[in-house]
């Protein structure tokens, strides 16, 4: 009797872990960051609550995760990879500081960026700087010939 109970619980546990592993792989394959995070959150909640992982995963699926062709993506907010820019260069036209010492930088392309961290970074008008994408949707401003960078946020 104990052996039967042990084998049954072992088979059940193995199938649950296989379902979790499969759901993790499927969540990881979702290209949209927000949909992927939602999938992982729902999967975590299902495991904590002891629910069936496959049904929890399937209920978290969004139609955007199943879209494969260019025509199917037409009209969605997600931009194709070739349109996404990783880094831009611009010339500084104006530099201001707020009362807390954070920089407000205006570039020749009309963009205005504000410093979001408290690091020291000296900027002069007429110099060329880069702005690149950082982790979790942040942006980083710096110079090619200098290792120091600051985090910035676009105002307009």
Search tags:
36% helix, single chain, 4 helices, alpha+beta, elongated, 6-stranded antiparallel β-barrel, 156 residues
Report on the structure:
Mean pLDDT is 77; it is low at 4-16 and 55-68. A 6-stranded antiparallel barrel has the order 1-2-3-6-5-4. The chain contains 4 helices and 6 strands. α1 runs antiparallel to α2 and α2 (33-49) runs antiparallel to α3. The longest helix is centred in the first third of the chain and has 27 residues, at 2-28. β1 (87-97) and β2 form a beta hairpin. With 156 residues, it is α+β, with helices and mostly antiparallel strands. It is elongated and about 60 Å long.
Arithmetic mean pLDDT: 77
**What share of residues is helical?**
25-40%
SSE topology string: HHHHEEEEEE
Number of helices: 4
Spatial ordering of strands, largest sheet:
1-2-3-6-5-4
How many DSSP E strands? Answer: 6
List low-pLDDT spans: 4-16, 55-68
Q: What class, by secondary structure content? A: alpha+beta
Termini Cα gap: 71 Å
State Rg.
24 Å
* Strand coverage percent: 15-25%
Which descriptor suits the 3D outline?
Answer: elongated
Sheet of most strands = 6 strands, antiparallel, barrel
């Amino acid at each position: 009797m104990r052996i039967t109970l042990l084998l049954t619980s072992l088979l059940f546990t193995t199938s649950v872990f296989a379902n979790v592993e499969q759901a993790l792989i499927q969540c990881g394959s979702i290209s949209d960051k927000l949909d992927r995070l939602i999938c992982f959150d729902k999967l975590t909640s299902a495991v904590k609550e002891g629910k069936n992982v496959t049904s929890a995963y399937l209920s978290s699926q969004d139609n955007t995760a199943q879209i494969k062709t260019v025509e199917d993506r037409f009209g969605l907010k997600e931009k194709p990879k070739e349109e996404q820019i990783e880094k831009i260069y611009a010339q500084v036209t104006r530099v201001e500081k707020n009362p807390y010492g954070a920089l407000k930088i205006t570039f020749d392309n009309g963009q205005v960026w504000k410093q979001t961290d408290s690091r020291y970074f000296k900027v002069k008008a007429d110099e060329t700087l880069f702005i690149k994408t950082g982790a979790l949707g942040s942006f980083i401003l710096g110079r090619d010939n200098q290792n120091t960078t600051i985090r910035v946020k676009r105002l307009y």
